[in-house]
Fold this sequence. Notes:
Chain A is of the alpha+beta class.
Amino acid sequence: MKTVTLDINGKAFCLDVPDGELLIETLRDRLGLLGTKYSCLEGDCGVCTVLADGKNVLSCLMLTVEAEGRKITTIEGLGQKDLHPIQQAFIDEGAVQCGFCTPGMILASKSLLDAHPSPTQDEVVHALDGNLCRCTGYVRIVNAVLSAARKMTKTP
Amino acid sequence: MKTTSPVGKSVPRIDARQKVAGEATYVFDLRLPGMLVGKMLRSPHAHARIVKIDTSKAEKLPGVRAVVTAEDTPKIKFGSNEFFFPYTVDQLPLEFEKVRYIGDEIAAVAAVDEETAQKALSLIDVHYEVLPAVFSSVEAMKPGAPAIHTAMNNIGVMMPTCFGDPDRALKESDYVREDVFYLQSAAHAALEPHVSIGQYELSTDRITLWSSTQAPFKIREAMAKTLKMQEADVRVIKLNVGGGFGGKLEMFPMDFCACLLSKKSGGLPVKMMCNREEVFSFTRRKHPMIYKLKSGVKKDGTVTAITGEVIADGGAYCSYGPTVIAAAIMRFMMVYKFKNIRLFGSRIYTNNPISGAIRGFGGVQSGFAIESHMDMLARGIGMDPVEFRLKNATDPNMTTVNKMILSSNGLKDCIRKAAEISGWKEKYGVKKETAPGVFRGIGIGIAADVMGSKMYKSHESAGSIIKVEEDGSVYLFTGAADTGQGSDTAMAQIAAHELGVAYERVRIKAADTEITPFDTGSFASRVTFISGNATKNAATDAKRQILEVVAQELKLDIQRLDIKDEQVVAREGGRALLSFDQAVILCYSFNYGRLIIGRGNYNPKTTPVDFRTGEGNISGSYGFEAQIAEVEVNTKTGQVKVLKMYDVHDIGYPINPASVHGQIEGSIVMGLGYTLYEDLKFKEGRVVNPLFSKYRIPRSTETIPIESVFIETNDPQGPFGAKGMGEASLLPTAAAIANAIHDAVGIQIKDLPITPQKILAALKDSENKK
């Protein structure tokens, strides 16, 4: 067991966790942050994507003790009442079907747009390569990210 | 709040805000007080007799709350096509005599945590007597093959069809050819794993099951039957579902065991969830098929006869076997007006995992075989594949040879439009080398969709209830099961339009067997058409109730009133008489006290498939589709790159265009995966690639440009002219790509997936023949 202080969605949490506990387990089972889903627990699907210091990481491959000292953002931290422009674009472009990949997909997109505010379609497609979706064929997801990028660069 | 009608508009999905905010709840997320972890004990053998099961050690393990075996069950079998095909009911919730595949369920445990549950499984002692097993459908049919059930030659389902005089027609043909096509297995790969939570109420003997399912009412029926309970005592609740694609269409032993373990644990809820490996290995898979065809054609392009055989590897149990065989045999009869047909379909038991329903049922397999074969027939007489299809395609207002009644039919318009937008005339048959050794080609495939399949019950009805509260809020109760395709949104749009109110007013409560009306479930592209009509009827009823009060109050004829854009209006002239809110308050007022509760149902006029003949008008209407693929083939590497897909779909009328395009795009990309690389592989009955890293589904970098166009035929039966859709776009994709490869480099690949190795081998083979 280790005592860790985590910064999750801007709030500090002090927890005792086993050394081998995964961040996805801490988020879902200890903190009740159920917006982060998982589909394989093997790092293959991207569903459990969260942000660590703004970069997309897989919470099924990160130990909770490794998250100490990093700012973790989950979908709950991105926007719930007031949606982030990426979340709004996913709604407007019809990029959501079953919704299971959506939180991870949105956070991977945020990581991209924070680093590259005006990506090309090719850059979007490559940035989302690690996030699987079985419903949409990705067409509307890519459109949503491009549309969000346009809106976000217009209104600083 | 004033808006015009939402029907025909890409309004935001009703569940989109919760989904993008991470607040949408799936059964995957659900936690209940005292909840235990359930796990299934599965057979490690493909075929074995169970000699003895000893659970005593597992029961004594601290933290274990319950262990169940078949001895805790009434030993009643279940099946998915039970009503019409009682002989296909062949699976026990827990087996006790024999296991028939690697993964067959024989016991289950509930414990305080996952680790304890896993340990308990390892402490269950099972003695097996291993039996000879058979893994190939062709081998399983041979005399002397191991008998898996009691079916003769392991043929679980048979479907002989014969129309006209195919032998004579073949003789009278100008060109005859024979082809054999091989179709591999595939996985649904929905991202939410199979999961359910069962809770048993001991004081009343009632069950609640929360399940990630496409068909809650179907599960209720199977659960009640196998537990010897009344359906009224089984409540099945669907929450958000993270994808289904046919993989969550029936009861699984884990659903049953979750409830039984809860009973034995004193009523504590038990959660059963598959990990990814279990989803791939032990749920359902696509039927591998061998499709043999021999057909003839006249010089003018008229197909004279089509004959052949379809052999499907069904795996250990029947599941949706009859529906899949019917789809594999009958789908093309909606597409082509052939008169002479003889096809024999059989579904064979093997000791492989269970084959079941998957988007398109058997239509994807037949789509590849038939549409590739049609191109080869066209080439045999030197006819353009587009012209060939126009010559043989079905027309509106006709009855097919197997008695399907086609009313609206935009198939020929779909073919012409697809040819037009893809530049078919300029591109087809033109040799184009875009880089050294890289050739471009174009190919077509066509398909039809049903709107339901009448394979589950004597009726195929769906119901809806709409209540309008005093504050003007509108609640829609529907049994329709949204699994991500967007049916809740479509139902809300239909209700809002018919009631004449804003889409934003409608709240939906769906798919809870105790609260919502009956609905057979989300399958066979049926929901928009059948549940949509039920919802429209409920809204019509609610509207009539409101207008009755207004008519009485204003002393007007109800026939002259309507509700539009949130106003009660005069039908003629459209003058607003009072607002919707005022009308509702009037209904609830002192003099009237009328609670507005509209109800509606819809049962399409269909007949079940007669498995002795292949006849049956299985759907209330039919949808149509043409797809054209443009590809580039690298003759040095064997790589196929799909440059673009053109899809033209007769969807009747699009209730939500963005949703319809989304279904088409998702289908095409799923089809692209199946065509080029998806391949669930087996070795002696064991899935060898049960991981996303080994079973590749398309990624964002593998998606392709898609041009999707609608043909609006305004179906006379459909709600606002809409037809169902969601399966058809997957059916012609593989053949369109295979045919385009032929156009590029002159080779026709007849076994999927079309890997670079197969391309290189076929190129070498055709070089040698020259």
